[in-house]
Amino acid sequence: MAASKSKKSAAPAKSAAAAKASAAAPAAKPAKPLNPRAAIIAALNAAYWMEIETTLNYIANSINLDGVRAEEIKKSLLMDIPVEIGHAQTLGKRIKELGGKVQGSAAFTPGQARLQPPRSSTDVTAVIRGVIEAEDAAIAQYNLTIRLCEGIDYVTQDTCIRLLAEEETHCQEFHSFLKEYQKKG
User: Fold this and answer.
1) pLDDT at residue 136 is higher than 80
2) Is residue 3 part of a domain?
């Protein structure tokens, strides 16, 4: 509460001239918010591209990692590639069902800098951290989409809840890998 009082008292008081000038000026039109369906489609598109990018990076990392310690991670990534593709296909179908359009690669902007293959092909920990970061981002995106759907689109909401559960399971798996790799040093 103290912080909110100090914020209020720190706000500068408007002068009478400034208040009069702002009252006389025409009100600026607020930016038109997306309609709920368009906002849901935009959120689904963001999740779709996250799944596609994750798939690309899982393929690259499952090929590039070297060493005995890397084998378990490579296997896990290889097993998750079809799952991530399935997520993207599910999202794409739902985008189409809602009247949206699934874009091609020209619309893609990469965002997973940390999941790029590391310089050292034996840096398994870097890949694990990259997977966790990508999964955390997907979890956040699905939670956002679920909230957008509340009271509006229960089919999309249910779909995203199912995908969220799978992402949380995968993230937990990689948190376990990270604990083990940190312990071994």
Assistant:
1) yes
2) no
The angle at the Cα of 88, spanning 146 to 40, to the nearest 5 degrees, equals: 35
User: What is 166-183 written as a DSSP string?
Assistant: HHHHHHHHHHHHHHHHHH
Q: How many domains does the chain divide into?
A: 1
Which tokens in the block code for residue 24? Answer: 């006389």
168: phi then psi, degrees, rounded to nearest 5:
-65, -40
Q: What is the pLDDT of residues 2-56, one digit of tens each?
A: 444 444 444 444 444 444 444 444 445 545 557 999 999 999 999 999 999 999 9
> What is the CATH classification number for the domain harbouring 90?
1.20.1260.10
pTM: 0.81
Residue 154 lies in a domain: yes
pLDDT digits (tens, 9 = 90+) for 49-76: 999 999 999 999 999 999 999 999 999 9
d(CA 160, CA 163): 5
Q: Which domain holds residue 121?
A: 35-184
In a domain, 131, yes or no: yes
Q: Please indicate, yes or no, if residue 60 is contained in any of the structural domains.
A: yes
Structure tokens at 84: 């991530």
